[in-house]
Amino acid sequence: MPKKTFYLVSLGCAKNTVDSDSMAQLLQRDGYRAVRSPERAEVLIVNTCGFIGPAREESLEVLHQMAAVKRPDQMLIAAGCLTQRYGMEVARQVPGVDGILGTRRWMDILQVIRRLRRGPHPEPLYHLPDEAVTVGMDEQETLRASVAGASAYLKIADGCRRPCAFCAIPLIKGTTVSRPLNTILDEARRLRDAGVREIILIAQDTTDYGHDLGLQDGLAILLERLMDVVPDIDWVRIMYAFPGYVTDRLIEIMATHSQILPYLDIPLQHAHPETLKRMRRPSNVDWVRRTLAKMRAAMPGLAIRTTFIVGYPGETEEEFQTLLDFVDEMRFDRVGTFQFSFEAGTPSEPLGDPILPEIKETRYQRLMERQQAISLQINQSFVGQTLDVLIEGYNNGLSVGRSYRDAPEIDGLVFVEGRLEVGRILPVKITGAMAYDLTGVPALES
Ligand code: SF4
C-alpha cells in the first residue's frame, strides 16, 4: 500500500465540507495523495457530524465500516463535530479508531498522523486541545472554501453565539468567530480566477458576520466589498441568515446587484410565538412577515428557503396548526423539516422529549405534504418563463443544472434537453414543473 495516501469521507453540512477540503489541502501540501478507495489509502479520515441523532448514527456507521476494512498498516482518524462533542466515547464505541481529532483543530491533522506514525499507541490518540480555539485563528493559509464544479462554498465565519435551546452547535464549535474581511475577499478573487461562477456564503449564522470584528451590518459590508472585488462573478448566494438580522442595508445591496441572487436561506424553526419562546428563538413572527414582504417587494421572484422543527417539547396541536397556517400564508419556495432531536447538554435538555415519535412523524408528513403542494404551484408558475441555469452535469440524455432558486444538494434541479456545456450558465425556457424540480429546453441566447 503506497505511503502518504489518504481517503477522506466528509459528512454533515457544507461547513464541514469546507473543513474536509482544508484538511485535504494541508495533506496534499505535505505530499499526500488522495485516493478513491479506502483499501488503497494509508490514512483513513472520517470528518464526522454530531449535530443531531440521525447524523450521529450515520457518522458512527461510517466509522464502523472503515474500522471493519482497516488493515494493520493503515490508520483511522475520526475528526469533526462528533469527536469534538463526545471525544473518547467515539473510540470506545468504534474499536479500531486510532486517532480522535476535534472540529476546532482540523488544522492539526498532520500533527495527529505524525504522532500516530511514531506509534504504537495502545490507546487511541486523543487530540482535542481544550483551549477555546475556533477557526479563523489558525487556518495555515488554506483556502476556506469547497469547490464543486463551477460552484464553491466560501466559509465566512464559524461557531455561533445564538441561544437556540435545541442546538448543540455552540457546544461543539464555540462562539462565532468571523474570518478577516480581506482574507475572504482574496479567496473570492482566487475562486473567480479559478473559474468559479457561483460563490455560496456559509457560516452557522451569516447575518452575524463581523460583529466580532467591530463591523455593524457586517454581511452587507462584505457583500458591498465583494461587488467591488469580484464584480464579474456570476452568482453570489447567501445561506443561513438569522431572523431579526436581515437589515434594510442587506436588502438594498441584494436588490441593487444582479450578481447577488434573489435567494435567501433563513431557518425560522417554527411560527408560533410560544413555541419559539421555548426554543429561545426570535418570536416576533410579524417581523418575519414584514421583512419577507419588504424583500419580495424589493426583489420580485425572490426565492426563500426556510427550515422548521416539528415535535418540539410542548408543541400542541394548536401550535402546530399555527405553523401549517403560516406555511400556507407565506408560501416559501423551499422548506426543510426536522423532527425534534433530544440533545443532552443543550438548554432544551430539561424539557426532555415528551412528544411521541408517531406524532412527530405525522406532523412531519403533514407539513411536508402541505409544502409540496405549494412548491408545485410555485414551480408551475415558472412554466413558459426563461431562467438562467448553471449546468452541472448530463444524465440519461438530459443536462442537469440549478437556477437561482436552487442551492446545491438541498433544493431542486432543472433538467434540460440536450447536452449542454457543464459549468456554463445558460438561458433555459421552462416547459414543465414537478414538486421540486423543473424541466426545460435551451432558450435562444438574447
Ligand atoms: S443559529 Fe441557533 S440553530 Fe443555528 S447554529 Fe446557532 S444556535 Fe444553532
List the helices and strands and how they pair.
Elements: E1 5-10, H1 14-29, E2 33-34, E3 43-48, H2 53-69, E4 75-80, H3 81-86, H4 88-93, E5 99-101, H5 109-117, E6 125-127, E7 145-148, E8 151-155, E9 157-158, H6 169-173, E10 177-178, H7 181-193, E11 198-202, H8 218-229, E12 235-238, H9 248-255, E13 260-265, H10 273-278, H11 285-298, E14 303-310, H12 317-330, E15 334-339, H13 357-380, E16 386-395, E17 398-402, E18 414-417, E19 425-433, E20 438-442
Parallel strand pairs: 1-2, 1-3, 3-4, 4-5, 5-6, 8-11, 11-12, 12-13, 13-14, 14-15, 18-20
Antiparallel strand pairs: 7-8, 9-10, 16-17, 16-19, 17-18, 19-20
Iron/sulfur cluster binds at residues 160, 162, 164, 167, 169-170, 204-205, 242.
Overview features:
single chain; 3 domains; seven-stranded mixed sheet; 23% strand; binds iron/sulfur cluster; 446 residues; OB fold (Dihydrolipoamide Acetyltransferase, E2P); alpha/beta; pyruvate-formate lyase- activating enzyme; 20 strands
How many domains comprise the coordinates?
3
The CATH class of the largest domain is Alpha Beta
Across the major sheet, the strand order is 7-8-11-12-13-14-15
Q: Please identify the structural class as seen in this structure.
A: alpha/beta
CATH superfamily name of the largest domain?
Answer: tm_1862 like domain
> What form results from the Cα inertia axes?
globular
Distance between the termini: 55 Å
| DSSP E strands, number | 20
